[in-house]
Amino acid sequence: QVQLVESGGGSVQAGGSLRLSCLASGITFSSYCMGWFRQAPGKAREGVAVIRHDGSPTYADSVRGRFTISKDNAKNTLYLQMNSLRPEDTAMYHCAAEAKVFCSGPVTTWNYRGQGTQVTVSS
């Protein structure tokens, strides 16, 4: 059974930082595409970042230069370091996983996702 469990969310002021973690089980972590997406109340899901098997990342324009995605295959854990946070970053952040060769397609549509961790940024 695949499980993705996020942690690390919280409330911060604008300009602050948070580090999200996602512990994966039930998958061969190093063989999966991993990513993060977010959803704010009343808004559509938005892909945030993806990391491929080789560790190469892709970011949404809205977070590029501020967020960093990384993973530790030995710990089956995905990370999202979020710096220079803005009020518009407020959302529920979800970890996602998919067994794809090229990690293509929107991360918001991937098969496996966690319950999410809330990030709230105040101005």
Ordered list of secondary-structure elements with their pairings:
Elements: E1 3-7, E2 10-13, E3 18-25, E4 33-39, E5 46-51, E6 57-59, E7 67-72, E8 77-82, E9 91-98, E10 112-113, E11 117-122
Parallel strand pairs: 2-11
Antiparallel strand pairs: 1-3, 3-8, 4-5, 4-9, 5-6, 7-8, 9-10, 9-11
Number of helices: 0
Beta-strand portion reads over 45%
Content-based structural category: mainly beta
Helix/strand order? EEEEEEEEEEE
Concise description?
The chain has strands at 3-7, 10-13, 18-25, 33-39, 46-51, 57-59, 67-72, 77-82, 91-98, 112-113, 117-122.
What keyword list fits this structure?
mainly beta; four-stranded antiparallel sheet
Structural account:
The chain is mostly beta strands. Helices cover 0% and strands 50% of the residues. The protein has no helices and eleven strands. The chain has strands at residues 3-7, 10-13, 18-25, 33-39, 46-51, 57-59, 67-72, 77-82, 91-98, 112-113, 117-122. Strands 2, 4, 5, 6, 9, 10 and 11 form a seven-stranded mixed sheet that branches. It has a four-stranded antiparallel sheet with strand order 1-3-8-7, with no helix packed on it. The radius of gyration is 13 Å and the shape is globular. The mean pLDDT is 96.
